[in-house]
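Async update (no meeting this week)

Hi team, since we skipped the sync, here's where things stand on the single-chain job. The sequence we agreed to prioritize is pasted below, unchanged from the tracker. I ran it this morning and attached the output directly underneath so nobody has to dig for it. Comments welcome in thread, and please keep replies under the output.
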Amino acid sequence: MTEDKLTTVADTQSAVGVPVAIVVAGALIAGAIYFSGSPIGKGGTKEVNEPTAAAVQPADDGQVAGAVVGDLSAVDEKDHVRGSANAKVTIIEYSDIECPFCKRFHPTLRKVLDTYPNDVRWVYRHFPLEQLHPNAKVAALATECAAEQGKFWETLDYLLEKVQTGEELAEDKLPALAQKAGVVGVSQFTTCLSSKKYEARIASDIQDAAVAGGQGTPYSVIIGPNGEKEPLSGAQPYEAVKAAVDKYL
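Output:
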């Protein structure tokens, strides 16, 4: 099994008694729900991608969540981009630093970039699911504070690849972790983190993920050279991601 996923709309209705329109609306305002801190229920069996903060219940059938790509935001100077600016293919990933499936998927995308250093670029956007992962948002904020010192990717890599538990991502532990990742100005980092100055940025990414079709984490969209969009839900194996990329090269 490669990822967690949500129930279908029908399953969601039976589980929580919410009309389809409310479920859709919940997805579109995921950013607002995310900041409300309201609880979310869990299903009784293991899932395949971490569910969103929308009013839904997770399923446990082990299948990849389907998605229809909406009108996601264009890549711009505010985005965190790894890879060639002239790449033919763009992979936009919406991810949660505390999500175990996101941790599994992170080295897969690094391997894709190693395979296609000139043809693929990787754009990272935040999709923390705070109801499931209480330290996901503050970890996302930490990467933005590290970005002020040019250490976004180094910090992201460290938090996803070296930190094993959500408890280790508590706010009081993040300055030491950022320092290990290469952040030199720890005082500046700590002040930034305490200020929560990038909360609006995180909320914007969450809303973009919902509009883009994200139903869980990790969720990615592959964009071809002619603007083609293909959703990729969950921690897919390297071979699956490579096959999807190869179609556009």
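Quick observations from my side:
Residues 12 and 165 are 29 Å apart (CA to CA).
The longest strand covers residues 89-95.
Reply here if anything looks off.
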